[in-house]
Amino acid sequence: MIVTATAQPFSTHQFFVHPYPPLLNILESQISFANESLWIGYTKYKQYSEPFCPIAGSSISFTSWHQTPTGWQNMYIFANKTAPVAFTTAHGHYVPPGASASGFGFDKYGNWIFQGQNKFVACQTKDQIKKGPYEGYQIWWKGAGSVRGVNCSEPISLVKAEEAGTCGNGY
């Protein structure tokens, strides 16, 4: 018996909101990782944020330099709930009951989707709104209705940079 294996090459890509969303009142379209979630806008200037440059396939794996120990984290969402996208702990596999860490991909236009749908929205809580637009917007999955005290956009297009290896360029 002969067994052969082929390795799939992987590369990281920086993610952006596209086209530029003027209704969000932001100047920065790069997606940042901060506080175990994803953000757009001025959050990228916070000391605790970093460029979001995952290995993207049917699951999203990301290594944060802010974690101790440094290690990969898997993104998950609750398909039937409106909540922020979240990540497992570093080196952790635990995904809460009802959440899904697989089923991600890209549509024919290059938009990031989950199980064939785009329900990614940009949200701010009342506390973030009080601080002004410089707080940035957190990326949520809108799997159900609105959440009291949270102001969310219509679905936004999240796309990866055309060129592999662009992670952090211009960040």
Summary?
The protein has 171 residues and is mainly beta. 4% of the residues lie in helices and 31% in strands.
Protein model, in words:
The protein is mainly beta and 171 residues long. It has one domain (15-160). Helix content is 4%, strand content 31%. It is built from one helix and 15 strands. Strands 2, 3, 4, 8, 12, 13 and 14 form a seven-stranded antiparallel sheet that branches. A four-stranded antiparallel sheet has the order 5-6-7-9, with no helix packed on it. A hairpin with a 5-residue loop joins β10 (104-106) and β11. The protein is globular and about 35 Å long. The model is unreliable at 3-9 (pLDDT under 50).
- Indicate the proportion of strand residues: 25-35%
**Overall number of strands:** 15
Q: Give Rg in angstroms.
A: 16 Å
Largest sheet: 7 strands, antiparallel
Distance between the termini: 50 Å
In sequence order, what are the helices and strands, one letter per element? EEEEEEEEEEEEHEEE
* Structural domains: how many: 1
- Structural class by secondary-structure content: mainly beta
How many helical elements? 1
The low-confidence parts are 3-9
- The mean pLDDT is 78
Q: Residue share in helices?
A: under 10%
Mass-distribution shape: globular
